[in-house]
Amino acid sequence: NAGVTQTPKFQVLKTGQSMTLQCAQDMNHNSMYWYRQDPGMGLRLIYYSASEGTTDKGEVPNGYNVSRLNKREFSLRLESAAPSQTSVYFCASSRTERDEQFFGPGTRLTVL
Amino acid sequence: AQSVTQLDSHVSVSEGTPVLLRCNYSSSYSPSLFWYVQHPNKGLQLLLKYTSAATLVKGINGFEAEFKKSETSFHLTKPSAHMSDAAEYFCVVTEAGTYKYIFGTGTRLKVLA
């Protein structure tokens, strides 16, 4: 089992460009999450999907959109990237909302 | 509201000596608590979790943590540090009702030879 996979691993964007971060899990989990990690701030929740067909905002949703494509896949889209979105992005999944989360390897995004 | 405080941003220990990483939480109910480890340029790996069963929780790689409700603490310990333990460690508490994770700001552990 690959667990949680994320693509791409690295990305550099110019201000105003758009891109989609991809996440997939092969553990048959119901819940999926997107976080960003900034120095000295731990991880902060951007959006989550408690189950297929539902998405909800987390702590820092502004500037992002998500799509729960199916049970396996949960993508994060930046419509118009800003330098403040330079960060490391982690996707995670859990069997249900009450269970422990498993994390992907991360995507390091730089916005110039 | 729930919150979690990791009391040390950096900890240095010598190889073979004990490790103590401190975490305090605030919660108005019985929370679930977790410790995760992040090695450089890697994702987060679950070390251990507390979910209202035994107060002393054993995790992977010789780590353990004790839930102390009276002190609102969940400190992570290991009897003998190994070089491979050098990493960043995150304490996490779940938010009441939603089960969403609230992360501490992390403790970077350095292990000296």
Distance between the termini of chain A: 36 Å
Distance between the amino and carboxyl termini of chain B: 41 Å
- Helix and strand content put the structural class of chain A at mainly beta
Largest sheet properties of chain B: 6 strands, mixed
Report the uncertain regions of chain A: none
Taken as a percent bin, the fraction of beta residues of chain B is over 45%
Radius of gyration of chain A: 13 Å
Q: What's the average pLDDT of chain A?
A: 94
Shape of chain A: globular
Instruction: Give the DSSP E fraction of chain A (strand runs of 2 or more residues).
Output: over 45%
Largest sheet data of chain A: 7 strands, mixed
Question: How many helices of chain A does DSSP assign?
Answer: 0
Helix content of chain B: under 10%
The largest interface is: A-B, 21 and 20 residues
| Low-confidence region ranges of chain B | none
> How confident is the prediction overall: mean pLDDT of chain B?
92
Reading the helices and strands of chain B in chain order gives EEEEEEEEEEEE
Discrete helix count of chain B? 0
What oligomeric state best describes the polypeptide chains here? Answer: heterodimer
Characterise the protein shown here.
The complex is a heterodimer of chains A (112) and B (113). By secondary structure, chain A is an all-beta fold. Chain A has strands at residues 4-7, 10-13, 19-25, 31-37, 43-49, 56-57, 64-68, 74-78, 87-94, 102-103, 107-111. In chain A, the strands form 2 sheets. In chain A, strands 2, 4, 5, 6, 9, 10 and 11 form a 7-stranded mixed β-sheet that branches. Chain A has a 4-stranded antiparallel β-sheet with strand order 1-3-8-7, with no helix packed on it. The radius of gyration of chain A is 13 Å and the shape is globular. The model of chain A has no long low-confidence stretch (mean pLDDT 94). By secondary structure, chain B is mostly beta strands. In chain B, strands 2, 5, 6, 10, 11 and 12 form a 6-stranded mixed β-sheet that branches. In chain B, a hairpin with a 5-residue loop joins β7 and β8. Chain B is globular and about 45 Å long. The mean pLDDT of chain B is 92. At the A-B interface, β5 and β10 of A face β6 of B.
